[in-house]
Write a structure and sequence with these properties.
The protein is mainly beta. It has 3 helices and 12 strands. The protein has helices at 13-17, 43-48, 193-200; strands spanning 3-4, 10-12, 23-32, 61-69, 74-78, 90-92, 106-111, 119-128, 137-146, 151-158, 166-175, 178-188. The strands form 2 sheets. Strands 1-10-9-3-7-6 form a 6-stranded mixed sheet. Strands 2-12-11-8-4-5 form a 6-stranded antiparallel sheet. A hairpin with a 4-residue loop joins strand 4 and strand 5 (74-78). The radius of gyration is 17 Å and the shape is globular. The two termini are 28 Å apart.
Length: 204
C-alpha cells in the first residue's frame, strides 16, 4: 500500500518499498478541470482552451527533473528539451500535451544506482508551457513507482488550484546513505524549468 504524502512530509523510499529500491518512476498526472455545473467552457477560460469544447480541451503541463550537487548547484536537467541526463541515469519518456486518459501523463525514469555520487538531490517540477494556470487543472498528482514490480511506493496529491503556472512538486535526495522523498508542493510561475530556478533553489 503506497503512502499518501502530505505537504512537507519526508519518507524513506527503501523502507516504504520494503527493500532496496534502485529503479523508480516518477509519474505525473492531471486532468483538465470541469467548469462549474458542467457548462461548456466559454469566455476567458474558453479562450485559454482554444475555444472551449472539442479537441481544444488540453493543457500542456511539463514534468522536469533537476539534479543538484551538495553545494546546491545544478548538475543537469531533464525536461522535454533534453529527455536524458548526461550520465544516463534519468530518462524522460516524453511530452504529453493533453492530460487525457487515466494514470500518469508524463513519466521520468530514474536509476538511483546510476545517479553519480556527486548528485545529492533530484527536484521534480511541473510547469504549464502554454501559460495556463492551475485554475484549469484538477486531480494533479505525482507518485513514485518501484519500476521492478510496478508497485506504487508513494503518492502526493496536489489540491492547490490557483493562478500559479508551475509547482515545485517533490525532491528525492540522499540522506545517511539512503534515498528519501520530500513532498514540497510549492507554487511558482514559469513556462520552463529555467524560469523556476529561483523557486527551486531553496529546496535543492
Amino acid at each position: 500500500m503506497a503512502v499518501s504524502l502530505q505537504k512537507g512530509q519526508k519518507i524513506s523510499l527503501s523502507k516504504e518499498a520494503g527493500g532496496d529500491l534502485t529503479q523508480i518512476k516518477m509519474g505525473l498526472g492531471w486532468d483538465v478541470a470541469q467548469s462549474a455545473g458542467g457548462a461548456k467552457k466559454g469566455g476567458f477560460l474558453g479562450n485559454l482552451f482554444g475555444g472551449g469544447g472539442g479537441g481544444g480541451d488540453s493543457i500542456d503541463l511539463d514534468a522536469s527533473c533537476i539534479m543538484f550537487d551538495a553545494n546546491k548547484q545544478m548538475v543537469d536537467a531533464i525536461w522535454f528539451g533534453q529527455l536524458k541526463s548526461k550520465d544516463g541515469s534519468i530518462l524522460h519518456t516524453g511530452d504529453n500535451r493533453t492530460g487525457d486518459g487515466d494514470g500518469d501523463d508524463e513519466v521520468i525514469n530514474v536509476d538511483l544506482s546510476r545517479v553519480p555520487a556527486s548528485v545529492q538531490s533530484l527536484v521534480f517540477t511541473v510547469n504549464s508551457f502554454t501559460g495556463q494556470t492551475f485554475e484549469t487543472v484538477e486531480n494533479a498528482f505525482c507518485r513514485i513507482v518501484n519500476a521492478s514490480n510496478n508497485s506504487e511506493v508513494a503518492r502526493y496529491n496536489l489540491s492547490s488550484q490557483g493562478s500559479h503556472t508551475a509547482m515545485v512538486m517533490a525532491k528525492v535526495y540522499r540522506h545517511n546513505g539512503e534515498w528519501k522523498m520530500h513532498a514540497i508542493g510549492e507554487t511558482a510561475s514559469g513556462r520552463t524549468f529555467q524560469d523556476l530556478m529561483p523557486a527551486v533553489a531553496p529546496h535543492a
